[in-house]
Amino acid sequence: MTTTAERRERQRTQLIDAAEKAIAEKGLAGLKARELAQEIGCALGAIYNLVADMDELVLRVGSRTLMRLDAALSAAEGENAPSTANEAADRLVAVALAYCAFARDNLQLWRVLFEHRMAEGAVVPDWAVSEQMTMFRHILEPLSILVPDRSEPERMLMSRTLFSAVHGVVAIGLEEKLIAVPRRDLDRQIEGLVRLVCRGLAVPG
Amino acid sequence: MTTTAERRERQRTQLIDAAEKAIAEKGLAGLKARELAQEIGCALGAIYNLVADMDELVLRVGSRTLMRLDAALSAAEGENAPSTANEAADRLVAVALAYCAFARDNLQLWRVLFEHRMAEGAVVPDWAVSEQMTMFRHILEPLSILVPDRSEPERMLMSRTLFSAVHGVVAIGLEEKLIAVPRRDLDRQIEGLVRLVCRGLAVPG
After folding, report:
1. CB contacts < 8 Å between A and B, how many?
2. How far apart are CA B179 and CA A157, in angstroms?
3. For position B91, what pLDDT does the model report?
4. A157 touches chain B (CB under 8 A)
5. Do B161 and A114 touch (CB under 8 A)?
6. Strands, DSSP E only, in A34-190?
7. Residue of chain A minimizing CA distance to B163
8. What pTM was estimated for this model as a whole?
């Protein structure tokens, strides 16, 4: 026997599935409420019984993307926590390269993580904030080996900077802009950048 | 007496002025051929006697943005070419901070340099390519002091990587995404990143 709650939950999953597929194929611009409603066989207005608004739907898809990214980064890290500066540098390189590979393989879904802006006046809900923030542990863990003397807020700032820097190389590289690092050199340049930063961190400033 | 060529050139400048103003106010999405025609007082079709297509118009506006960016970076550099590794590092920091300041002060026009994609099948014309490429000299000059032993192609790759990294920190920072470096820390983090890379370059790999 199916309860109303179960049916609603199943339909909600179908809606997120359909949105994920639409974004993967056509990007954020390909997400049309009317087409999604048609695909899961409900009235247009009924979508808003399943999610509060399109922002929530995009964030739910983003949540799945982040979970898969998280798994990809964890797989690249392997089992052992780094304990030396060299191991920490290797770890950061592995994470950066896995990030680049994930972006390449999930281009549209990954782009939406950055392109999506909440509707005017709306704020990102707490659950989505905490999902995004938890990703920084992949950088913070090796950083705590590399710069054990820095404060936690300082390391948090550094992890944002390092992430943004690698993200910039990946994003411009994957757009294949004229000014980009060419694709064939992308992995080597990302590794080079991360190693330079790690080497810089090892030198007393 | 005004010749036809002079009149055309004046109207072309007016068209680029109007496009620049529209982008500065509303971004790429705010650029409408119909409104531009109205503003400069010509028929819609007459626009295409002044530029080949909207792509060219966006590139002409981008060309102005690049010229102003070029001037801002040159001003930040001062008169003396760097001759030591320390001076070269200071030079790179000054260029990166001037880049960030320019982006902040010209947010929409700067964004368009990266957001704009040519129409399907169209290629960026040579004049625009060479304008973009010449900007790298602001990075290549100090790099030639920092890593005199690397080949020119290798330094060109490094300059693309370094540019993309700083651009990433600036772009995510100015979007004020949750995961961004907060605005108040942006300059300090950019300087820190560039100094780390320079320090890393000074250590034998």
Report:
1. 124
2. 10
3. 97
4. yes
5. no
6. none
7. A169
8. 0.92
Structure tokens at A43: 């009235």
**Tens of pLDDT along B145-203?**
999 999 999 999 999 999 999 999 999 999 877 788 888 899 999 999 999 999 999 87
Question: Using the 8-state DSSP alphabet, how is residue B149 labeled?
Answer: T
The whole-angstrom distance between B112's CA and the closest CA on chain A is 13
Q: What span, in angstroms and rounded, lies between the C-alpha atoms of A23 and B18?
A: 34
Q: What chain A residue is nearest to B200 in terms of C-alpha separation? A: A200
CA distance B78 to chain A (A): 25
Query: B171: which chain A residues are within 8 Å (Cβ-Cβ)?
Result: 164, 168, 171
**Dist. CA A183–CA A191, nearest whole Å:** 14
B37, B78 in Cβ contact below 8 A? no
Q: What is the C-alpha separation between A133 and A55, in angstroms, rounded?
A: 19
B197 touches chain A (CB under 8 A): yes
**Residue type at position A161:** T
DSSP assignment of B89-143 equals: HHHHHHHHHHHHHHHHHTHHHHHHHHH----TT----HHHHHHHHHTTHHHHHHH
Amino acid sitting at position A2: T
Joined together, the tokens standing for residue A108 give: 């549209």
| pLDDT at residue A205, rounded to an integer | 57
Helix (H, G, I), strand (E, B) or coil at A66: helix
